[in-house]
């Protein structure tokens, strides 16, 4: 290590006040986080226009898949590189790669180029999320970190609500290429602010990068994401291609786990999983991702198809859930900072999430928007208790030298959870929709959903009345099955939350009665099982 940090940790020697330099850095970090989360939301609404100009409809899904694959595969590597060579340089590199990918995507002349450039963009995006979490972990002690949960939850809610609106506005007025170019000015602001204000200790590692471990992990994650993306859509779940990918994925991950016990500087040091809390937070994060992204996929579909809501403002349909998540996350963060206690939130959050998903599974063709909004709010309250607490507890459960891999591993589990959630809940939804359509509309119903069980508003308007009513019942039945599965899966999060051990958070803030005195800068020591 070289110099000491010029950006003091909040509460370390400032009496709990937030230094101006930290505020500027936090603003830049939130912009970077917004870039990573907003991108797919914006691109989704621009896709029809992109296909109209570039063609390549058969490769449409790869525009999203390439980005997702690159993000998931690179996430653990960015975390490890930050631990080995310093957080600042690694984070700046990820911003630059993301901006290069954005600029190239905006200049793409055909679908092949766009897919390749989206992969470059995803490679940078993997470092953005991990870098934000790890730098906050470096700057702000765990006890104070809760105060910033609301800020991060707010960015997430803003991206999910505003993404489709911004994407539609940009595409209609400036053209689809500006859906990518809009990242450039925001990214430059983040780049300049982080370069000028963030000063973290420089690191030089003598160890070599674990290339074999990185390759095995990349192959394993790629295979998993492709299985969850292609299964039931491009290929049947029982097809040879899906079986091959499952075999490759399992073999690569088993080989990766074995190699990590031998590598001098492993990509994901397995000793971090000796911490009971870290392992439990990984499980809860996976389940939260499973539930959240499944819910954000099917709720707008239900409201548009069954309740007749407009697709134009699809992001606003999620407002009850995202608003509840934002408010609860802020409250949970404040309570955690003031008391140093956090175990109640994973338990309460899991209970609310389970109950909310069960309530969503009871929706049918007669459910009002007010009722569905209340059900969505219950799920949002649950997720608000879980979203940032999982990262906070995971980071508090490892030593400072492993902050990067802890942040990246937690992010990766949530990403993989979202992939599994969309795939499994989607397969269940599609099968149920097709069955009900066949039962209610016979051959016409089967023909309607032959290509896809998810119809857009224009396709729905063209259907005969009988087929349209059958489809509304089918979507209700499909969402019932999907959300009921989500409720069952959420029970496992509750089981994991019960076994969380409440280790006092280090740092500034009012002490709990039985919390021992400890220097603010002292890194948390991982408790073992």
TrEMBL record:
Biased composition (Low complexity): 518-529
Main location: membrane
Highest rank taxon of the organism: Bacteria
Domain Major facilitator superfamily (MFS) profile residue range list: 25-505
Keyword list, A-Z: Cell membrane, Membrane, Transmembrane, Transmembrane helix, Transport
Family: Belongs to the major facilitator superfamily. TCR/Tet family.
Name used for this protein in its record: Multidrug-efflux transporter 3
Species the sequence originates in: Streptomyces chartreusis NRRL 3882
Phylogenetic classification of the source organism: Bacteria, Bacillati, Actinomycetota, Actinomycetes, Kitasatosporales
Gene name linked to the record: bmr3_6
């Amino acid at each position: 290590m070289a110099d000491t940090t010029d950006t003091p940790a909040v509460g370390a020697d400032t009496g709990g006040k937030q230094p101006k330099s930290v505020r500027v850095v936090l603003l830049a970090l939130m912009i970077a986080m917004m870039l990573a989360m907003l991108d797919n939301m914006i691109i989704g609404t621009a896709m029809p226009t992109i296909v109209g100009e570039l063609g390549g409809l058969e490769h449409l899904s790869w525009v999203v898949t390439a980005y997702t694959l690159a993000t998931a595969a690179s996430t653990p590597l960015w975390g490890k590189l930050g631990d080995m060579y310093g957080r600042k340089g690694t984070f700046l590199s990820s911003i630059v790669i993301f901006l290069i990918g954005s600029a190239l995507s905006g200049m793409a002349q055909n679908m092949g180029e766009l897919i390749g450039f989206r992969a470059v963009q995803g490679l940078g995006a993997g470092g953005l999320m991990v870098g934000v979490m790890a730098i906050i972990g470096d700057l702000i002690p765990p006890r104070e970190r809760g105060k910033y949960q609301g800020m991060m939850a707010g960015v997430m809610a803003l991206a999910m609500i505003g993404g489709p609106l911004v994407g539609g506005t940009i595409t209609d007025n400036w053209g689809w290429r500006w859906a990518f170019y809009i990242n450039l000015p925001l990214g430059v602001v983040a780049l300049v602010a982080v370069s000028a204000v963030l000063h973290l200790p420089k690191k030089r590692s003598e160890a070599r990068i674990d290339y074999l471990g990185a390759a095995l992990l990349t192959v394993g994650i790629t295979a998993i994401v492709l299985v969850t993306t292609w299964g039931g859509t491009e290929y049947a779940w029982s097809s040879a291609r899906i079986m091959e990918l499952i075999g490759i994925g399992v073999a690569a991950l088993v080989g990766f786990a074995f190699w990590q016990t031998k590598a001098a500087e492993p990509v994901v040091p397995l000793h971090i999983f000796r911490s009971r809390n870290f392992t439990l937070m990984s499980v809860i994060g996976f389940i939260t991702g499973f539930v959240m992204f499944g819910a954000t996929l099917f709720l707008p579909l239900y409201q548009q198809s069954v309740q007749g809501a407009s697709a134009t403002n699809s992001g606003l349909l999620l407002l009850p859930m995202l608003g509840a998540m934002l408010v609860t996350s802020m409250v949970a963060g404040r309570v955690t900072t003031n008391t140093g206690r956090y175990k109640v939130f994973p338990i309460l959050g899991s209970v609310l999430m389970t109950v909310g998903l069960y309530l969503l599974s009871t929706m049918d063709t007669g459910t009002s928007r007010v009722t569905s909004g209340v059900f969505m709010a219950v799920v949002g309250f649950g997720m608000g208790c879980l979203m940032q607490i999982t990262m906070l507890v995971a980071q508090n459960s490892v030593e400072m030298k492993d902050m990067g891999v802890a942040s990246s591993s937690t992010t990766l589990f949530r990403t993989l959870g979202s992939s599994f959630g969309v795939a499994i809940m989607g397969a269940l939804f599609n099968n149920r929709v097709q069955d009900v359509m066949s039962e209610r509309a016979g051959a016409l119903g089967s023909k309607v959903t032959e290509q896809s069980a998810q119809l857009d508003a224009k396709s729905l308007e063209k259907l005969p009345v009988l087929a349209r009513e059958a489809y509304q019942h089918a979507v209700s039945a499909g969402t019932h099955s999907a959300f009921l599965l989500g409720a069952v899966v959420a029970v496992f999060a509750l089981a994991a939350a019960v076994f969380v051990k409440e280790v006092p958070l280090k740092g500034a803030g009012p002490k709990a009665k039985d919390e021992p005195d400890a220097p603010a800068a002292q890194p948390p020591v991982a408790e073992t099982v």
